[in-house]
Design a protein that fits this description.
Bound molecules: thiamine diphosphate
Largest sheet of chain A: 6 strands, parallel
Distance between the termini of chain A: 33 Å
Radius of gyration of chain A: 18 Å
Strand content of chain B: 15-25%
Oligomer: heterodimer
Structural class of chain B: alpha/beta
Radius of gyration of chain B: 19 Å
Chain lengths: 306, 316
């Protein structure tokens, strides 16, 4: 079976979304696009008989907002030295990462069909040496914060004005290396480096509180020397995400920053949301048929505000 | 070594530290990282000379490797240094998944290689690093034997388009290569002596003991060809095979477990291209212990006499 982009939903022209100059309109369009991406990821995962729906859905609005507005990037020139960089340390969100990147113009949307297939550039977890635009090969959890600290140190050393964004989930924050990286970024007062926590409170094996309780993340980051936004943001609300990015950008000389987003793993489908079983399970026919209409219904609601 | 004056002795770590400072003068991309042992591994001098380009990451080797990778992604040329044992084993997953998988130009400089952290004992002695580093795709593995070798490997490593594992050593050891016609060239075996009866392959500071053994063998009428296999990967198959085709036998000498290091690389090569009888000298897959460095080398078989004896066994 070959995956084709379904035409039963209204599709935005992603280039137009990226180019939109009216901010209110742009935010509404990003909100819509993020939900459209969710439908596309669900379709793709069902079609390919593979998983990682939960963590993909969770990060949809954060990624779509960054790629379509938050970052200074040139998809047609992925090696541009003055680009902002995002490392998605939770590399298992690959289906969403690829969907957002394709729409942003890094590669043809049709190529999504090759996800996880032999000879594809779309590896199960992103590979920077295969797919231009991927800033770091991820998949093994826990590397992002350290590597981004290094990227940001280089940017600071070279007196560039670029931003380095690192998206982590709880899994990365279970890893001791992340906290070593956090201490290091704090020690060197790394500017324009932001850790974005996709805080959906569910891991692979169960709820975080059962697997490895993280306690108050804001307090932990603060104690380790980061400047943390004074409240968490709704990670499924593009306006809130935009506010959080504006907060970061107004703190460009405050050393390393942290923003915590309240999100839901598997967001958008009632029986999948907050349920660890949908971390990596493939989506069979019955579940697909119950899930998709829910996503489409929300999309239709969002259409009204376009 | 038939010279009458004793050769100059320089520790590889000192050559490394001085080399970094020197290269830092002209190479502005060069940055160094250490994990709270910069005074031991000698990156401290680089830190004093170029404080903006030195990052002491504290005792967190895995994190340090990834920070170095990030600096490389950002366009710098990082050299990441700490004790070989901790760098290679605590940083293994980072070296594999970040540095090697992404083919990043990071120099992984393992100080205190082999038994050279002798008094600290087995917890600090690095005898598996070559095996681990050699098995990682994209990694180049170089084990210099003297100060000149370190300098040359460092210069060449900073021009490479990918990672380099550079194994260093703690104690002052003789500079044997001043009289060599060619510098250490990464990827190319250096022939230190020509001979026809037996090939001896060596890497690292025990090249000194091996040179002495070759002189003794010579006095006893055995013509040994000595190959300095400083680059364990990529392996110079051509030079090695030409030598064993001539001599018909090979002895390997290394300050490493006999599993997976030089012996492994040589056996993989000869077994496929030109099988010959072989013997290996190295640590016999055991945990080692504290003591004077030279006494430890002797105890674990890396003495001039043992090299002579093993060569003769192979000849008989
Ligand atoms: C080092 C490492 N250990 C284990 C895994 C297997 N694994 C993949 S995702 C995951 C849990 C991730 O949880 P979280 O970061 O909260 O992701 P999200 O809920 O956002 O999908 C685990 C254990 C891995 N990829 N890397």
């Amino acid at each position: 079976m070959t995956f084709t982009i379904p035409t039963d939903i209204r599709r935005l022209d992603p280039q137009a979304v990226a180019a939109e100059s009216d901010q209110i309109k742009k935010n509404a369009h990003i909100q819509y696009l993020a939900q459209e991406n969710r439908v596309d990821v669900l379709d793709l995962l069902h079609d390919k008989g593979t998983g990682h729906w939960g963590g993909s859905s969770s990060v949809s609005e954060i990624l779509t907002t960054l790629y379509f507005d938050g970052m200074n990037i040139r998809p047609d020139e992925p090696e541009w030295a003055d680009r902002d960089r995002v490392v998605i340390s939770k590399g298992h969100a690959a289906p969403m990462i690829y969907t957002v990147m394709a729409k942003r113009g890094y590669f043809p949307v049709e190529e999504l069909d090759s996800l996880r297939q032999i000879n594809s550039r779309l590896q199960g977890h992103p590979c920077m040496r295969k797919l231009p635009g991927v800033e770091l090969s991820t998949g093994a959890l826990g590397h992002g914060i350290s590597v981004c600290t290094g990227i940001a140190l280089a940017s600071n050393l070279q007196k560039r004005e670029t931003w380095t964004w690192c998206i982590v989930g709880e899994g990365c924050l279970n890893e001791g290396e992340s906290w070593e990286g956090i201490m290091t970024a704090a020690k060197f007062k790394t500017n324009r480096f932001v850790v974005l926590v996709d805080h959906n409170k569910v891991q692979l094996d169960g709820p975080c509180d059962d697997i490895m309780p993280l306690g108050s993340l804001a307090d932990k980051f603060r104690a380790f020397g980061f400047t943390v936004a004074d409240h968490s943001y709704d990670g499924h609300d593009v306006n809130a995400i935009q506010e959080s990015l504006a907060w970061a950008k107004s703190n460009d000389t405050s050393g390393p920053l942290c923003i915590i987003y309240d999100t839901h793993k598997g967001h958008g489908v009632d029986f999948m949301s907050d349920n660890y079983k949908w971390h990596g399970a493939p989506i069979g026919v019955d579940d697909y048929q119950s899930a998709r209409p829910q996503l489409v219904e929300t999309l239709k609601e969002l259409e009204a505000s376009l | 070594m038939s010279t009458t004056t004793a050769p100059q002795k320089i520790a590889l770590r000192d050559a490394f530290g001085a080399g970094l400072v020197e290269l830092g003068k002209t190479n502005e991309q060069l940055v160094a990282l250490d994990a709270d042992v910069s005074s031991s591994c000698k990156t401290a001098a680089f830190g004093a000379a170029y404080p903006d380009r030195f990052f002491n990451c504290g005792v967190g080797e895995a994190n340090m490797v990834d920070i170095a990778a990030g600096l490389a992604l950002g366009g710098q040329r990082p050299v990441c240094s700490t004790f070989a044992l901790f760098l290679v084993l605590k940083g293994a997953e980072q070296i594999r998944n970040t540095v090697c998988y992404n083919k990043l130009p990071v120099i992984i400089a393992g100080g205190y290689g082999g038994l050279s952290d002798s008094y600290d004992g087995a917890s600090h002695q690095s005898l598996t690093d070559i095996a681990v580093m050699r098995s990682l795709p994209n990694m180049t593995v170089v084990v210099p034997g003297d100060a000149n070798g370190v300098q040359h490997a460092l210069e060449q490593g900073l021009e490479m388009d990918g990672p380099l594992y550079l194994r260093l050593s703690r104690n002052p050891t003789p500079v044997y290569s001043n009289t060599c016609s060619e510098p250490l060239t990464i990827g190319k075996i250096r022939r230190l002596r020509s001979g026809s009866d037996i090939t001896i392959a060596v890497c690292g500071v025990v090249t000194n003991q091996t040179l002495e053994a070759v002189d003794i063998l010579d006095q006893q009428g055995v013509s040994a060809e000595l190959l300095e296999v400083h680059t364990l990967k990529p392996f110079d198959t051509e030079t090695l095979i030409a030598s064993v085709a001539k001599t018909g036998r090979i002895l390997t000498v290394e300050e490493h477990n006999v599993i997976g290091g030089l012996a492994g690389a040589v056996a993989e090569c000869t077994a496929q291209h030109h099988p010959v009888p072989m013997k290996t000298i190295g640590v016999q897959d055991c945990f080692t212990e504290s003591g004077d460095y030279d006494e430890l080398l002797d105890k674990y078989g890396l003495s001039t006499q043992n090299i002579v004896a093993k060569a003769k066994e192979l000849l008989s």
